[in-house]
Amino acid sequence: MRGADVIRVLIADEIARIVGDLEKLEAYGDVVDVCGVAHQASAVIEEAWLRQPDVLVLHERFAELPGADFAAHLASVSPATRVVLMTSGAAPVAADTWTAGAISESATAPELLEAISIAAGVVPPDADPEIGFTGPEIRAPKGRATVVVAFSGKGGTGTSMVATNLAVMLAQGAGGHAALVDIDLQFGDAAGMLHVENHLLTIADLASHGDEIDSALLDEVLATGPADVRVLRTPSSPELAEAVSGATVRSIIRATAKGREFVVIDTPSQVDERVLEAFELADRLLLVTSYNLSSVRGTKSTLLLLEALGVDMESVDVVLNHTRSRTNYRREDIEEILGRRILVDLPYDPRVDPSLDSGTPIVLAQPRAELARRLIALAQLIAVPRRPADAGAIEIPELEPPTYRRRFSLGRR
Ligand SMILES: Nc1ncnc2c1ncn2[C@@H]1O[C@H](COP(=O)(O)OP(=O)(O)OP(=O)(O)O)[C@@H](O)[C@H]1O
Ligand SMILES: [Mg+2]
Fold it and tell me: Measured from the CB, is residue 173 less than 6 Å from ligand 1?
């Protein structure tokens, strides 16, 4: 458990038994918060990823995969979650190595509470303390940084909020080996959102160096923000930004990726040469969309554009963000319009604005807020390889040599 007083529990079971468990836990609302339920076996991992529970109460009938595989999958999406296995027999079976306890489905309310508390580490177990497993640290594949681009075809959807929170979270998980590069040269304010706006050197100071951006120069130009994230800020005056070409952005991304684990790029809402370079070098492209038709249409157009440009659509994900407290649309409606699933749905939180103003992103300021939990889950998803089972086999290519050729263009060259 992550130092919280209330244990967050996800229950994965058939509806009828979930209702029974909720009744059993109702009296313990001050210590147990049922943050989610999964009533289909196929939804357990996704719910765990979204909710980041402290404890997953999993009925054995829902454990479709062999235990170790399930544990590895769960650990990759929600590393801190401990599993309590619920069994059909009257007496609980002995806990398996991938679980933190087992309990019978006919257990009494106090017994269920005790099993959850032991799994969460609140009550010391009488049994062998070696049970359970530990999830991976935030870690990118070795070689060079994972480049993550946050983009939106419409302004004001929360792209910078997502980029700054992700960058800080990834930096925290990777011992500071993460950078945020702001290429919204006209209006970008990632530096203000991370309270490093007084750092004098900016992206414009790298423009005259072409391909010769060495690590010492970069180190001087990068500011250091919360969780030791390194930040490349935009110049205070837009004329200075004119010298920053697509080629400059390419060489900045390549230089920043060296020796780091993650580079997050915040972008403007229009596609220009610099944004194209970022798209091309991205390992993960997050399209940030808010709950309004204009934003959803912007995302639809961006998806079509990316497809036309030949971007690997496997690397593209849609992030739905509530910038307002009330909306007229459902996530499913938006998925239907876009023709693809939404990776994560970020709730509205009135503390976002003050957190951005104060320079401390919500993942640090309010880590237990639902929005922060989901942003942390998103960072974890980015940090672990997509296919954990194949992780050892993934070859990370070196960044392109100087003779690099575009894979796509908008016909402007
Ligand atoms: N989940 C949220 N809850 C509450 N407010 C939010 C949320 N996400 C974003 N906001 C607010 O919405 C506004 C726009 O956010 P942000 O600047 O991140 O968007 P953007 O897409 O980068 O905009 P721009 O096009 O100006 O660069 C900010 O005031 C921010 O505080
Ligand atoms: Mg922005």
Answer: no
Superfamily of domain 7-120: Response regulator (3.40.50.2300)
Letter for the amino acid at 353?
A: D
Distance 352 CA to ligand 1 centre (A): 8
CA of residue 184 to ligand 2 center, whole Å: 7
Mean pLDDT over residues 326-336, rounded?
85
Ligand 1 atom nearest 356 alpha carbon: 31
pLDDT average, residue stretch 102-131: 73
Q: How does residue 410 score in pLDDT terms, banded at 50, 70 and 90? A: very low
C-alpha 225/C-alpha 70 separation (Å) is: 37
> To the nearest 10°, the Cα dihedral for 50, 51, 54, 55?
-90
Model pTM score: 0.69
Q: Are 343 and 299 spatial neighbours (Cβ–Cβ below 8 Å)?
A: no
Ligand that lies nearest to the alpha carbon of residue 321, given by its number in the listed order: 1
Residue 292, CB-side half-sphere exposure with 13 Å CA sphere: 13
Predicted confidence band of residue 91 (pLDDT cuts 50, 70, 90): low
Q: Do domains 7-120 and 146-393 have the same CATH topology?
A: yes
At the second CATH level, the architecture of 146-393 is: 3-Layer(aba) Sandwich (3.40)
Ligand 1: centre distance to CA 324 (Å): 10
Ramachandran class of 410: left when φ > 0, alpha when ψ lies in -120 to 50, beta otherwise: alpha
Taking the C-alpha atoms of residue 99 and residue 20, their distance in angstroms, rounded to an integer, is 22
Tell me what pLDDT residue 129 has. 33
In which element (H, E) is residue 12 found? Answer: strand 7-12
Sheet arrangement for strand 178-182: 223-224, 230-232, 178-182, 262-266, 146-151, 284-290, 316-321, 342-346
| Residue ID of nearest Cα to ligand 1 atom 19 | 158
Pairwise CA distance, residues 178 & 263, whole Å: 6
For the chain, the structural domain boundaries read: 7-120, 146-393
What integer pLDDT is reported at residue 119 of this predicted model?
84
Token code pair at residue 243: 């010298």
Query: How far is the CA of 154 from the CAs of 151, 204, 293, 297, in angstroms?
Result: 9, 25, 11, 9
